[in-house]
Specification:
With 645 residues, the protein is α+β, with helices and mostly antiparallel strands. Helix content is 15%, strand content 38%.
């Protein structure tokens, strides 16, 4: 029995040596850290007689803490080593630092010739082989590891040459391995030779390729309740968990559920868990997953359902109202029915409410529409929703979301829904403009071709009369070229020539400072009636006119419907050139349209329309003359024939 015990200890020691490339001895720590000495196992321990003796200092790695200490010849006892004499020797290193001493003895040999092949051993263990067909042992292999990592699991060492680096030629059949062929078996024969041709054989490994792509995932169904009344029906715990391995859903059975002592007849708190692991565990983090749920067995259900919302409560304004967009109920510009759009908007509102009960779980507040994939809210839960009209701007409606669980416990949430116009007006026909002969360009008429449409006023018929304010001065704008920083962003997308051309481009921007401008005001439906024509001072800061939308009020002008549009320009009458127009607009709800800038180019010569008119008129005249000549000649020929007859 004693011999068996010693043999087991010997095998265990070999296992430790096989896993680590260094044999290490440690001593008690000194003031600078723990002192240790280790053997560099990459070096040979057998030497051919009458060759060069090795430097045994390289065989010992001494560390004080994490710092490598240089070992000296005086710290090594060669034990009578003689490279000229065959035999076995022991090389001993002894190192002392402060009160700590470490010693390591290494057996070596001087031999006549090299007749032994290399040793091949595994330094990173494989999974335990399994039985395959015909008694063949199969080694499971993780597809996330490459064949390079496979070779790195082996340490090849020759007694005379030391470590021999692994190459593909030592792993016969490794070139045939395909890690995407899941479930396939690939045979690899492992052998190595030293420089003398001595052969060392490890043998055959049959790799079974296992699909390990992705991680095991366990999801908890949070829609189900986690409280149950004592002495009622026990929950089906298998429905609480969903296990996915790669893309495959794994059936959850009672066998993998750990109930944690759950007892429906006893009030208390219980932890129910599920543990799933793959058949082959290469990575415990990836291949094993555990999830748990805390359950309560309670005396009675006295807790009302919990109501949660998405973008409802957290978006209330300072008055506790939820602002909801206005919607016209008639026919829209795109042909849709506005009331249908409004109902869809209210459907979005209702589907932002959820209710979950501690005992009943999620309370269904939606339902499927027959024969469709559509899901709609159950309006019975929303008291007052039938009174809501989204075409009544600035009107408040009270809606109460109310739910009751099976035990009769009720929860409710009141929402004050305020219909608001939150859409800014838009500009129509605001593209760049081109004219010839400046004397024919009328500033007010030109500007009034740029229209303003508003989602509320346009459908209600009062957007035809828009108050328009023109601020005009020839030195209001400056041309600003693109900065070097702006151009740098495009250096990888364009050539240097293209960027050089782009550097010539510019934008019109307002000049900061105080300016005296000419202000002209009119209404879009009566441009000939100039309401204001005078000079005022404006202040431009950060390229914007300060208090822009206050100007018409300071001038005593009433926008009537709240729509006001500003044109800021440097246009000059009877002058050819390029001018800028900056557009700003606001509706009565305070929605401000984005600032837009366009250009007006005026050049000499007739307009394109005039040119076409002249060309067409000339063509018609020539065509008419040709027809006249044709009929005249024909008439003369007829008369000539009659006279000859």
């Amino acid at each position: 029995m004693k011999r068996v015990y010693v043999f087991v200890i010997f095998l265990f020691s070999l296992l430790l040596i096989g896993v680590n490339n260094n044999v290490e001895v440690k001593a008690q720590g000194s003031t600078s850290g723990e002192l240790s000495i280790a053997l560099n196992e990459k070096l040979p321990t057998s030497f051919i007689v009458n060759t060069t003796a090795p430097d045994f200092k390289n065989y010992f790695v001494v560390k004080l803490g994490t710092t490598v200490q240089e070992i000296t010849d005086s710290q090594i006892d060669l034990g009578g080593f003689d490279i000229a004499a065959l035999g076995d020797y022991t090389i001993t290193a002894t190192v002392t630092v402060d009160a700590a001493t470490v010693t390591l003895a290494v057996p070596v040999k001087v031999i006549a010739e090299d007749t032994e092949g290399p040793e091949i051993r595994v330094v990173k263990a494989f999974l335990e082989p399994i039985d395959g067909e015909g008694g063949k042992k199969l080694t499971p292999w993780d597809t996330s590891e490459s064949m390079v990592q496979f070779k790195e699991r082996f340490f090849i060492w020759d007694a005379v040459e030391g470590q021999i680096m692994a190459t593909d030629s030592m792993f016969l059949g490794i070139e045939d391995v395909r890690l995407n062929q899941f479930g396939e078996v690939f045979s690899i024969w492992i052998e190595a030779q030293d420089s003398k041709g001595n052969l060392g054989v490890y043998g055959e490994i049959n790799l079974l390729v296992i699909n390990t792509i992705g991680s095991v995932q366990i999801e908890v169904n949070k829609d189900l309740p986690v409280e149950v009344v004592v002495n009622t029906e026990e929950p089906d715990f298998t429905k609480y968990f969903k296990i996915t391995d790669n893309i495959y859903e794994i059936e959850v059975t009672d066998e993998i559920i750990r109930r944690g002592g759950f007892d429906i007849t006893k009030v208390g708190t219980y932890t129910v868990s599920v543990i799933y692991q793959r058949e082959y565990v290469f990575d415990r983090v990836r291949d094993i997953k555990r999830e748990q749920i805390v359950f309560k067995v309670i005396e009675a259900d006295v807790t009302p359902p919990e109501i949660t919302t998405y973008r409802i409560v957290d978006e209330l304004n300072i008055n506790g109202q939820l602002e909801w967009p206005y919607q016209y109920y008639g026919e829209l510009m795109d042909g849709r029915n506005g009331e249908d759009v409004a109902n869809a908007s209210l459907e979005t509102f209702m589907q932002r409410f959820r209710a979950k009960d501690n005992v009943d779980g999620v309370i269904e507040t939606t339902k499927a529409v027959d024969n469709t994939d559509q899901v709609v809210a159950i309006r019975d839960f929303f008291k007052g929703i039938e009174n809501v009209r989204l075409d009544q701007k600035d009107t408040e409606f009270i809606i109460v979301f109310e739910v009751t669980d099976k035990a009769g416990n009720t929860s409710s949430l009141e929402i004050k829904l305020l219909v608001v116009d939150d859409v800014a007006p838009i500009y129509i026909d605001y593209g760049n403009k081109y004219y010839r002969i400046n004397n024919n360009v009328k500033l007010v008429g030109m500007l009034n071709t740029i229209k303003l449409e508003d989602n509320y006023h346009s459908y209600n018929g009062d957007s035809e009369s828009v108050l328009k304010i023109v601020l005009n001065h020839k030195d209001l704008f400056e041309q600003v070229q693109l900065s070097y920083h702006d151009l740098e962003k495009y250096k990888d997308r364009f050539t240097e020539e293209e960027l050089a051309e782009a550097a010539k481009a510019y934008n019109y921007m307002l000049k900061n400072g105080t300016h005296t401008v000419k202000v002209v005001a009119f209404r879009s439906d009566d441009e000939s009636n100039i309401l204001v024509n005078k000079e005022i001072e404006i202040v431009v800061e950060n390229r914007k006119v300060t208090n822009l939308f206050q100007i018409h009020e300071d001038l005593g002008l009433d926008s009537k419907n709240g729509l006001v549009m500003y044109y800021i320009t440097n246009f000059e009458d009877s002058t050819n050139g390029e001018f800028a127009i900056m557009l700003d607009a606001k509706d009565d709800s305070g929605n401000i349209a984005p600032t837009r800038t366009l250009r007006v180019v005026v050049e000499n010569g007739p307009t394109l329309g005039t040119i076409l008119l002249v060309i067409n008129a000339g063509a018609i005249t020539i065509f008419a003359a040709a027809i006249g000549v044709y009929f005249l000649i024909k008439k003369v020929r007829i008369k000539k024939k009659e006279s000859e007859a």
